[in-house]
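Quick one, tokens below:
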């Protein structure tokens, strides 16, 4: 009888700790410092107003860099707007298992215009990363790229 109680108690403790570990947020990079979130669609609507500013965004991870885990693509809650959260190679490495998870991510907004040549180079690189093809003829002119230069993130 006592052995059964001990076994039942041990099993319950393992289950409780497993749930706590799974539910616990996972931190990447620096600790988050902001408490107020900015919507991704608000940033993309007027990127110049946010250029160089620190923001905290929240959403679902829709994609992850397959080579080094150096970026995640974050979709807003409506799934309408997305922004890339990019870190320096080797600073933070996001495992592919974070895809689909909720994330809070903080960093500085970067806005830059890519020439057609830069877009082709970037397109080739991303195609290689993701194991897909790229057609340079799809590039039609300069393109503005908005992303978060990532500093820290927390997944749930």
């Amino acid at each position: 009888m006592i052995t059964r109680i001990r076994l039942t108690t041990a099993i319950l403790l393992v289950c409780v700790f497993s749930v706590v570990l799974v539910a616990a947020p996972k931190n990447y990079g620096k600790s988050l410092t902001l408490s107020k979130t900015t919507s991704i669609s608000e940033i993309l609507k007027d990127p110049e107003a946010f250029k160089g500013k620190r923001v905290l965004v929240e959403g679902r991870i829709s994609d992850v860099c397959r080579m080094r885990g150096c970026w995640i693509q974050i979709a807003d809650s409506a799934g309408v707007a997305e922004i890339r959260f990019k870190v320096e190679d080797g600073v933070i490495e996001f495992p592919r298992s974070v895809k689909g998870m909720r994330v809070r991510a903080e960093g500085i907004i970067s806005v830059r215009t890519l020439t057609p040549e830069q877009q082709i180079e970037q397109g080739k690189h991303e195609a290689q990363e993701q194991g897909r093809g790229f057609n340079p003829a799809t590039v039609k002119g300069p393109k503005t790229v908005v992303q978060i230069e990532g500093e820290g993130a927390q997944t749930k």
